[in-house]
Amino acid sequence: MRAESLKNAVVIAIFLLSFKEGAAADLTRGHSIAVRWCSECHMVAPGQGHGSDAVPTFAEIKASDRLDEAQLTAFLSAPEHSRMPNLSLTRAEIADLVAYIKAQRKVGRNSGD
Ligand code: HEC
């Protein structure tokens, strides 16, 4: 029946779309993970207003260029020998966070943007 096969096509399309979304690093997800898990210590976005002075902001981490994507991924997988807690993030969460950090614009601390 035509309607039935159309329905199947829609189901398959939705499945493929959600699969693609799940695979790619996602800035919006990175932002919400950062707000939930990182903002207690880090300034994760301009004008956040809190966070700790002893902890680099995400903009500073991006601006330093000391850590590339691979090094950030390795650090977040196992932040040993660091004052940072290990947050047991999944690989997908780490990919989203790395994309989010790398998308930070070069703004200073408390610039308010
Ligand atoms: C309990 C506080 C705390 C939380 C929560 C936290 N961090 Fe950190 N983070 C730190 C501190 C402190 C440092 C500085 C580490 C050092 O100097 O040894 C740091 C450093 C970093 C660095 C830089 C490492 C380097 O070598 O320069 C990255 C990247 C980072 N954090 C990412 C994150 C991300 C992403 C999250 C959320 C998933 C997060 N942090 C959550 C405290 C925290």
From TrEMBL:
InterPro entries named in the record: Cyt_c-like_dom, Cyt_c-like_dom_sf
SUPFAM superfamilies xref list: Cytochrome c (SSF46626)
Any single Pfam family the record assigns to this protein: Cytochrome_CBB3
Residues in Cytochrome c domain copies: 25-105
MF terms (GO), sorted A to Z: electron transfer activity; heme binding; metal ion binding
Domain of life: Bacteria
Keyword terms of this UniProt record: Heme, Iron, Metal-binding
Protein name, as recorded: Cytochrome c
Organism this protein belongs to: Ensifer oleiphilus
